[in-house]
Every structure is written in structure tokens, then in C-alpha cells.
Amino acid sequence: MNDPVLADTLIPPTWNPALAEALAARMESLVSRGGAFGMLEALATLLGMIQNSLAPRIATVPVAFVAADHGFASTPASGATRTADTIAALRDGRLPLATLARVHDAAIEIVHASGADRPLEIGGSPAMLVNRTADARLGPAMTPAQAHAALRQGMREGERAQGGAIVCAGWGAGAASSGALVLGALTQRDPLEFIAEDGEPRECAAAVRERHRALWQAGAARDPVDVLAALGGYETGTLAGVILGAAARRQAVLVDGIAALAAVHVAMRVAPYIGDYCIPVRSRGGRGVDAALALWRPALPSALELDAIDGTAGVLALPVLRSAAALL
């Protein structure tokens, strides 16, 4: 697909009056026999509408960790190394998340986000595998061509999903700050509303906004590719593509973290009905995530108070998703 905007024709609304009536009747019958199931009833209906089925299913679910660093937040000797170390620890099973994924039948997939249509496999040091945008404090983080390529890369990844759902999260130095900037530009809010950490992340975000202040002027263009190119990053663009591709396959999309929430807003400006397919979850607390969720819808409730790597809550939500599907 040469123009991501054409994805709008691939993403229909989930609303189907006849299916909604049939799901309601089935749920009413279930409740009359077995009692009320609260949130699970609404979630089961949502899954039925997303999958366009009276019997939605959740099989082995891919967990897409999309990784890239930002030039305003990392150097080859620092940020890229830290991101690569986290990826290596997950792949080697040294993070608790790897164990949780095995327990909950989730397939971890590391996606190295890139501004190229066919990212090359790079040998040598693991740090070399983490792509890094230009410094958005000095100019555009990406070219428009790179932003389009990131979307296409993500769409190819998302179109492979077939487990009934997919978990999406973004990793990398500056990923949360870039997500806050993208959210701010697209919604005309101060990006600092979406940044929980004080200190360097806020200073970087303020400097990037000042450099690209035209995006916040009254009447400024809201083209998602323009915003991606100016502010970055590869991971947000690729995540937006993953969401588009997965929704085109009628998969439920669990979005976790600021980078993924920013990607949803990008995707919704490419295909307006994308929000119908997305279910927010949260691995971290804080005012930044609160503000981002307030723009859209609350996160799926969790009995756990997490402060973990983005993607963790998505994995932990899978038993709830499977329980909801099993009701039908």
C-alpha cells in the first residue's frame, strides 16, 4: 500500500445492529442462567463486535514490542545501549515479563522500528539494532518518506496477527516523551500534561515543542504524517501501522503506554473507526498516563497496581479477555 491514508477503506466500524441484538440476546440468556458477570459482559460484547462473531476467540496472542530511540534523548553510547539491553533481557528470559508471557500464552515479538521499507538486519553489537531518529530539537525527527515507511512497516506486522487480539507497546529512549509530543500536537494540548517525569524528559519536550511551535499555532495542519515526521518517532509510526494492520484483520488491540496511546491517535486520523478496535491497558501509573487516557477512554481495570515495563498489563489482561470470550 503506497498511501497509508487508503487504510481508511480497510477499517470498517464495528457497529452491526443485527449482531449487537444477537449478542445482547445471548448475554441475556447467559445471565438468566448463571448470574451477572459485570465487566466481562461488556468486554465479551466488545470482542464479538470487533471480530464480527457470536463466538469470538482468543488464541495465542502476539505482543508487539516496537523499539526505537530518539535523537533528543539518547546517544549511541547511552540510550541505544539501554534499549538493546532491555530487548536482550526479554529475549533471554531474564525479565519477569517473559515468564508472564509463557504462562498466559502470549508470543513476544520484538519489532525494530525503522524509516525504511525493508529494514536491514544489522549484525554485530546489539546496540546497532536499535534505530534512532534525528534530534527533533534541531529539526524534523524524520522525513515524510520515513514516516510513511514506518507506517507501512507496522501495517505489515499488524496484518500477521491472527490470535483474536494483539498487545502493542513502544520502547526506547525518549519514546514516552515523543508520544507526549505527538499527543500534544494532534490534540492541541501542552505535551507536558502527558509527561509524568520531572527533569530531563520535560526539558527535552519543551525544547522540541519550541523548535516545532508552528504545530501548535491556531489553524495548524493536523496531518498525522506531518506530526510524525516533525516529532518522531519510528516506534510511534510503526505502532500506528501495527494497529491499522491488526484492525484490518478484525483483531482486538490492547494498547499499553504513552507511545502506544499516541499511535492510536495517529491511526484514528488515518482511519477514524480505529478506536472501535482498541482497548487501553496500563502498566504504569502517573499523571501523564491519566491525562492521555482522559482524551479517549479509561483503561481496562486491573486488580494489580503495576509500575512495570509497558506491555506487562497487556499480557496480564489476556486471561480476562479469554474469560470474556468464553462466556459466548
Just give the CATH class: Alpha Beta
Secondary-structure element pattern, one letter each: HHEHHEHEHHHHEHEHHH
Shape designation: globular
- Uncertain runs with pLDDT below 50, 5 residues or more? 1-8, 122-127
Strand content: 5-15%
Number of domains: 1
The assigned CATH architecture is 3-Layer(aba) Sandwich
Helix fraction, binned, reads: 40-55%
- Please state the average pLDDT score: 89
Q: What is the CATH topology assignment?
A: Rossmann fold
User: What structural class is derived from the secondary structure elements?
Assistant: alpha/beta
Number of E-state strands: 5
| CATH 4th-level superfamily | Nicotinate-nucleotide-dimethylbenzimidazole phosphoribosyltransferase (CobT), large domain
End-to-end gap: 36 Å
Structural summary, described in words:
The chain has 328 residues and is an alpha/beta fold. It has one domain: Rossmann fold (3-Layer(aba) Sandwich). Helices cover 46% and strands 9% of the residues. It has 13 helices and 5 strands. A 5-stranded parallel sheet has the order 2-1-3-4-5, sandwiched between helices. Strand 4 (252-256), helix 10 and strand 5 form a beta-alpha-beta unit. Helix 6 (175-187) crosses helix 7 (200-211). The chain starts with 16 loop residues before the first helix and ends with a helix.
